[in-house]
Structure formats: structure tokens, C-alpha cells
Design brief:
The complex is a heterodimer. Chain A folds into two domains: 3-30 and 37-73; 91-175, no CATH class. The relative contact order of chain A is 0.08. In chain A, 65% of the residues lie in helices and 0% in strands. Chain A starts with a helix and ends with a helix. Chain A is mainly alpha-helical. By secondary structure, chain B is an all-alpha fold. Chain B has one domain (2-504). Chain B has a two-stranded antiparallel sheet with strand order 1-2. In chain B, helix 6 packs across helix 12 (252-267) and helix 15 (329-340) packs across helix 21 (436-458). The longest helix of chain B has 35 residues, at 470-504. In chain B, 62% of the residues are buried. Classes of the chains: A mainly alpha, B mainly alpha. Chains A and B meet through helix 1, helix 2, helix 3 and helix 4 of A and helix 5, helix 8, strand 2, helix 10 and helix 13 of B.
């Protein structure tokens, strides 16, 4: 089997496996059954059946018709499909971005929203291949201050304060009078 | 007469400082989102949602609706001037709009865009006002079977009338429905797919899925390309030159046709501005008076997509407000805003909150006028935003997404969930699974489940009621027709292709 075909059917094989696992899990919900009534697993099972059937259909279609994407209703109206050369992709940037978001989620309860956001903004711009240091640090500072004032002092959204000593930075924002 | 009186009240309410300022903000932000290639209309509306938490519900909807309508117009500027479609809606604008610009008439192309957006939008706003109340009154007869099939109609229309594989769209929708089932079951109180987590027992907030899949997912997709939007050349004479009355008179028939097509497509749950824009252009290229010249930079090629795209907004709002069924990503977000404020749009909302509904209607009229005024006078500062580095804008977008997640339940788990759904959204985009059915599945899943389970309880598990009751049976028939549309279209194209050589002989 061609590598490209394997790659193209893989999501549907995984989808089918997930559907089977979920179908079994949906039969194990704990509840007090009422006679003649559908249980809490009935509705999810309908969705799972749809998921499984769609995966099976697409799997079969790709195995029979080859590795060809199906076209939808709207493509017929497109005058220049794939007219431009595909853009180059940089998987390392993508991985860097996802890791950075993960680090932010881990760090923000400790550093607090203000410091965490400031560092995240600057780091993300570097990951995004932007190299104007003045703009990076200036924009990160400005956006952090703007978000801090807007959400902590105007909209009163409860955002992480951070732990000592980083919470002192968040406290500065609470010195600004509310509007 | 009642409708006109209510609408007049709506205009008065719309002119209050809060609503008017939200209208202006919404129009400007919507135009900017339309201009920026990395930001899509739905993503922009979803990002604005967390800002509306503490706002009055009417002001929130006015803001989001204004963003929705102006988002259908802003992208045309960059498509015409720089060959950068700010939105998928604006792709057809490249074929004639950009070509007209290259022929030395960019101002004229912008003028046609403005007139089409204004005309198409106003026409659809009139249709919206005229249709919503009668449709809502009719919907008062609906019982749970009818509600279930109408929600199903909305979901399946999104699946059928889209881009790419139908099976992929079904998978996306099923995943969305499954996500909505996570948490505590409303009838039995059973925990479903909670993995023992108390946070998951509360369910997954649709906002997390929506902002994650649209916002974070889109930024990740752009990051993978290294934020490689082409640098724009300097445009010295970015201004709008309106067409003359004579020129407009020459295309009034096709303009009306395009606006009606857009409005009808908007009225169909599932088909939004992008489909309206493509289909309207396709109709003009197939049946228009100057079909042979389409793509060479003629006014018809600009009017058709733009009038239809803006006209689709009014149509889409009809079934959102009258039936509570969002037909597109943007209206799904607006439905989300209603639900965040504890309001379920549908027939009852016109009785209980008619003042709010008519204020929203009035805001659409005022918003269209404002949008065109801003578009006419401020086009240069608007396209100036393209000078902002994409990495900076994207970093800011991510922070807005994170704030949205953190502000829902003040729990960092939601931050992890939004990142997770962002990765899922990126993966879906990459593997050509549409995101809109996923989001609609999450939002409409619980409504569909409730209606389905109520029907099963009320009718002793008799599923044939969906087919035997007159209204639900009719909607089921419509649903089947919509599902068959892609197949019918393929059959028609095969027939046309087969008939062409015979006709040539």
C-alpha cells in the first residue's frame, strides 16, 4: 500500500477505533433505569454510530477510489482551485507554538496573568520569526498593560494573581482606580 | 403596522449611547477583522464573546451582529487593492475586483463593492424584519418532534452545503455532538465521559470549543506557515469612487438577483456568506448577460459576490431569532452570546423580549449605513492595519483566547481545554475536516438531545412521529433534499458535460 494512502486513511482508522471504544463506554454509564425509556447512553450512541459509519464510509471510499479528496457543494463554484503554489510549512514553529502555550498554562497560576502574559507575548513573537526586539518588548508591554486595565480593572474578570513574590506585579494593577 | 412601530422603537433604543457605541466599535472591529488575512469573521466574533460577559444582552448582540455584517465587507478592500482576500468570502472578489483594479480602476471597484454591500444588506434587512415575526408565530405551533427535526435540519444543512468531503463534515458534526454530551446527563443525572473529573462533570463550555477551534486553531495554522502573508505594496490612491446612477441602472436587475440569492442562501440554515458569495458569482458566470466577460474585471463580477455575501446576514438572522437555529459559524457565536445571558432565541423571544429583537433589527440598518460611511472615508487607515506584523497580531489574538478561557470558570483546566481544542481545530483544518459542523454540533447538540429525549418520553419511544406529524414530516423531507443536494449537483454536472459535445455537433 502506498505511504500516502496509508497516511490518508489513518485518521479514519483512528476515528473508527475511538468510535468503538466510546460506544462501549456509553453502555457503562451508571443510572437508575426507568422502564420503557431510553437511557443516558442513547443519544451519545447515536452520535457515535454516525461517527463510526462516516469513518467506515470514507475509509471504504479511499480504499476503492484511491487517495483522492472528495469535493463538496461549494468547490464547483470555485474558478481557480489550487491556482497558487502551496505555502511552505514549518512544523518546528508549530510545535514551538503549542509547547509555548502549554508552558503558559503551567506557569500562569504561579507567575500570575500579568507577568505570564507579558513573557508569553514576547516569546510567541520570537517563535513567530519576528525579530524587531524593540517592537516585541514594547508591544508585549503595551498589550499586557491594556489587557490588565481592561480585564482586571474595568471588566473585573477574575484572572490568576500568581503566587508570592510574583503576585506583587498583579497587585500594582489593583492600585489603579476602577472605572 | 405593529412591525413598523416596533422597528421605530428599535431605532430609538439603538441610539442610546451604549448601543450606539457598541455598534460603532463592532463595525470598526469587523472591518479590521475583514481586512486582516489571519483573522476570519467567525474567529473575530468568537473572540469578542468574552468581552460581552458583563454587558447588557442587547448591547452584546448589537456588537456581535455589527462585527458579522461589516466582516463581510472589509475583506474586499485588500482583495481589490492587494490581491489578499481577508476572508474566504472575498475570494471571488479577486477574479473581477482585483482585475478591475489592475486595469487602473481600483477606486471604481471599491465603489461597486460599497454600493453592493449597502444595497444587498439593506434589502436583506427589510426581508429579515418582514419574515422573522411571522416565522416565529408559526414556530409557536412546534412541539418537541418539530424542534428536533428543525435542529437536525440546521445541522445537516451545514454538513451538506460545504466544502470538501461529506463524510468529513459528518465526522466533524458527530465529534461536536459527542463533546456536548460530556458532563452530567440532564434527565438521569448520570456522568458521561467525565473521566472522574469534577470539572468535566459540569460539561465542556461551548465557548472553549468555539474560541479554541476557531481562534487558537487558526493562529496555529498561520504559525505553521511562518506568518508568511505577502508584504503589501504601497497604495497611494486608496479611495472609493461611487458608480453613477446610470451605471447602477444598467445592472439593477442582476444586483437584485444577487441580493435575493444571498438572502435565500442566508435563510437556509447551514449556508453562510461564503457560500452565498461563491454561488452568486457562479450563477452570474453561468447565466448572466455578460457571462463571457466574467473574470475580466467587470462590475457584475464584483456586485454578485458582495451583494450576496452581505445579503446573507439578514437571512441568517431570521432563523436564528425566530427558531433559535444558527445556520453558520458566526450566527452560532451570536446564539452563544444569547445563551451566555440566559436567553434562548426562538419564537418565545419575540414575545418576551421584542424590544431587544427590534433593537437588533434597527442596529443592522444603522450598521450598514455606518459601515459604508466608514468604508468610504476611512479606507486608508483601515488597510494600514496590514502594516502590523502578523506575529504581533496573532500573539494578541491568543491572549484574548486565553482570557476567554480563564474568565469562564476561573479555572486553568479551561485554559488547557482551549489549547486542546485549538490543536484539534488546527488538525481538522489540516486534514480537511470542516470546523463549522464541530462548533454547531457542540452548540446544537444539547438542544437536539433535549428535544429528542422529550419526544421519546412523550410519544413512548415511537420514532415514527418525526415522519408522521405534518410539520416535522415536511422538515424531514426538506432535510433529505438538502442532504441530496451535493449528489444532485454532481449528477447535473455530469449531464451537462455529457450534453455539451452533442450540442456542439
Amino acid at each position: 500500500m502506498q505511504n500516502s494512502l496509508v497516511r490518508s486513511i489513518l485518521p479514519y482508522v483512528v476515528g473508527l477505533a475511538i468510535a468503538i471504544a466510546l460506544y462501549i463506554a456509553a453502555g457503562q454509564f451508571e443510572y437508575s433505569a426507568r422502564e420503557g425509556q431510553l437511557g443516558p447512553g442513547a443519544w451519545p450512541r447515536l452520535a457515535i454510530l454516525l461517527l463510526g459509519a462516516s469513518c467506515l464510509f470514507e475509509l471504504g471510499r479511499r480504499l476503492i477510489a484511491g487517495n483522492r479528496d472528495a469535493t463538496g457543494f461549494i468547490e464547483v463554484f470555485d474558478r481557480e482551485p489550487d491556482a497558487e503554489a502551496p505555502e511552505p510549512v514549518y512544523p518546528k514553529l508549530l510545535i514551538g507554538g503549542v509547547v509555548l502555550m502549554g508552558v503558559y498554562a503551567v506557569a500562569v497560576p504561579f507567575l500570575g496573568f500579568i507577568l505570564g502574559t507579558f513573557l508569553f507575548l514576547a516569546a510567541f513573537m520570537y517563535v513567530g520569526r519576528f525579530r524587531d526586539h524593540r517592537v516585541i518588548w514594547g508591544a508585549s508591554f503595551a498589550v499586557t498593560v491594556l489587557c490588565g486595565v481592561l480585564f482586571l480593572r474595568i471588566a473585573y474578570v477574575s484572572l490568576p494573581r500568581g503566587i508570592a513574590p510574583f503576585d506583587r506585579i498583579t497587585d500594582v494593577f489593583f492600585l489603579i482606580p476602577g472605572i | 403596522m405593529d412591525i413598523i412601530a416596533h422597528l421605530a422603537d428599535g431605532f430609538v433604543h439603538c441610539l442610546t449611547p451604549l448601543n450606539l457605541s457598541m455598534l460603532v466599535v463592532g463595525i470598526v472591529v469587523g472591518l479590521l477583522i475583514g481586512v486582516l488575512p489571519g483573522l476570519t469573521l467567525v474567529m473575530g466574533v468568537a473572540l469578542a464573546l468574552p468581552f460581552t460577559y458583563k454587558m447588557d444582552v442587547t448591547a452584546s448582540i448589537v456588537l456581535l451582529t455589527a462585527m458579522y455584517v461589516s466582516g463581510t465587507y472589509g475583506g474586499a478592500f485588500t482583495a481589490i487593492l492587494f490581491r489578499i482576500p481577508g476572508e474566504p468570502i472575498d475570494v471571488p472578489m479577486l477574479w473581477d475586483g482585483y482585475t478591475m483594479g489592475r486595469k487602473g480602476q481600483p477606486s471604481k471597484a471599491l465603489g461597486w463593492t460599497l454600493v453592493s454591500a449597502l444595497g444587498g444588506g439593506l434589502l436583506s434587512a427589510v426581508v429579515m424584519v418582514a419574515l422573522t415575526e411571522p416565522l416565529a408565530k408559526f414556530a409557536l405551533r412546534f412541539s418537541s418532534p418539530e424542534y428536533f427535526v428543525i435542529v437536525l435540519f440546521g445541522l445537516l444543512s451545514v454538513v451538506a452545503i460545504g466544502k470538501g468531503s461529506l463524510a468529513n463534515a459528518f465526522i466533524s458534526m458527530a465529534v461536536g455532538i459527542l463533546i456536548s454530551t460530556v458532563g452530567t446527563d440532564p434527565i438521569y443525572g448520570a456522568h458521561r465521559f467525565t473521566l472522574g473529573s469534577s470539572l468535566l462533570a459540569d460539561g465542556i463550555e461551548f465557548l472553549v470549543v468555539m474560541v479554541g477551534a476557531y481562534g487558537v486553531g487558526e493562529v496555529l495554522a498561520r504559525l505553521e506557515t511562518g506568518f508568511a502573508t505577502k508584504p503589501v505594496q504601497k497604495i497611494v490612491n486608496a479611495r472609493t469612487e461611487l458608480p453613477t446612477w446610470k451605471e447602477m441602472g444598467e445592472v439593477k436587475g442582476m444586483f437584485f438577483r444577487s441580493a435575493v440569492v444571498g438572502d435565500l442562501i442566508g435563510l437556509l440554515p447551514g449556508a453562510g456568506a461564503t457560500i452565498a458569495s461563491f454561488v452568486s458569482y457562479g450563477i452570474e458566470a453561468k447565466f448572466g448577460k455578460r457571462k463571457a466577460e466574467m473574470g475580466t474585471g467587470i462590475a457584475e463580477g464584483i456586485i454578485a459576490p458582495q451583494a450576496a455575501a452581505t445579503a446573507s446576514v439578514g437571512g441568517a438572522l431570521v432563523h436564528l431569532l425566530a427558531l433559535g437555529i444558527p445556520g453558520s459559524g458566526a450566527t452560532a457565536v451570536i446564539l452563544g452570546a444569547f445563551m451566555l445571558h440566559g436567553i434562548q432565541p426562538g419564537p418565545q423571544v419575540l414575545i418576551s423580549s421584542s424590544g431587544m429583537v427590534y433593537t437588533i433589527f434597527a442596529s443592522l440598518f444603522l450598521g450598514l449605513l455606518l459601515m459604508c460611511a466608514i468604508g468610504y472615508f476611512a479606507i486608508r487607515p483601515l488597510v494600514k492595519i496590514l502594516d502590523f506584523p502578523e506575529a504581533v497580531v496573532s500573539a494578541y489574538v491568543l491572549i484574548l483566547c486565553f482570557i476567554g478561557a480563564l474568565s469562564i470558570r476561573n479555572n486553568v483546566t479551561d485554559l488547557w481545554l482551549i489549547i486542546g481544542f485549538g490543536v484539534l481545530g488546527y488538525g481538522f483544518e489540516r486534514m480537511k475536516f470542516p470546523v463549522a459542523p464541530l462548533v454547531l454540533g457542540v452548540i446544537l447538540g444539547p438542544i437536539a438531545e433535549e428535544a429528542f429525549m422529550n419526544t421519546m418520553i412523550s410519544f413512548s419511544g415511537d420514532w415514527t412521529v418525526f415522519f408522521t406529524r405534518p410539520i416535522s414530516g415536511t422538515i424531514v423531507a426538506f432535510t433529505i433534499i438538502v442532504l441530496l443536494l451535493p449528489s444532485l449537483q454532481k449528477l447535473y454536472l455530469r449531464y451537462v458535460a455529457a450534453a455539451a459535445p452533442i450540442a456542439a455537433k
